[in-house]
Amino acid sequence: MLKIFLITGLVISISLIACKKESASDNMKGNWVERSQRLDTIEFVSFPDTKERLLNLKSVKGTNGLPKYAGGYYSMKIEQDSVILQWSVSSSISNKYYYFKFNNDKASFLIGNFYKHDIGDSILRFEKLK
Fold first, then answer.
1. Handedness of CA 52, 59, 105, 103 (dihedral sign)
2. Is there a domain that residue 111 lies in?
3. What is the phi-psi region of residue 41: left when phi exceeds 0, alpha when psi lies from -120 to 50, beta otherwise?
4. What is the pLDDT of residue 119?
5. Residue 9 lies in a domain
6. Residue 9 and residue 12: Cα distance in Å, rounded?
7. What is the DSSP letter of 30?
């Protein structure tokens, strides 16, 4: 009887270890486009075996068609309802906090306007590109 309990316990333990829980970084993979104008895109970059993530702001164009100031990589750390961003080309060492909410549908997220977007909204919605 003891052998059956031990074997059952071992099988359950192995099964639980083998199951991979979907993490926030798994949900964030891929490219995301700003919903209103559909010009600005974000790609999240994560590194294996670390918690470090980068946000790559791409396709940011001004009215003249040239890239806007603020494009490129940002180091990021997600907290409960905010994200801490530091622009990679900034000489400032201070971190800036912005609103951040990954929606339950896993197909969109909200983020504070960290790059002075033309539409003037304080919160921007990005949708996952398919």
1. positive
2. yes
3. beta
4. 66
5. no
6. 5
7. S
- CATH number of the domain encompassing residue 90: 2.40.128
Under DSSP, the state recorded for 86 is: E
Q: In this model, does residue 8 exceed pLDDT 50? A: no
Task: Tell me if 12 is assigned to some domain.
Answer: no
Give tens-digit pLDDT for 56-87: 998 766 667 666 677 889 999 988 899 999 88
Which range of residues forms the domain containing residue 98? 23-128
User: Residue 49's pLDDT is what?
Assistant: 77
d(CA 72, CA 45): 12
Separation CA 11–CA 3 (nearest Å): 12
What are phi and psi for residue 56, nearest 5 degrees? -110, 110
Q: How many domains does the chain contain in total?
A: 1
For the question of whether the overall pTM of this predicted structure is more than 0.85, the answer is no
4: region left, alpha or beta (phi > 0 left; psi from -120 to 50 alpha): alpha
> First CA to last CA across the chain, in angstroms?
53
Q: Are 83 and 76 in contact (CB under 8 A)?
A: yes
Query: Is residue 98 one of the residues assigned to a domain?
Result: yes
The tokens describing 127, both together, are 């949708």
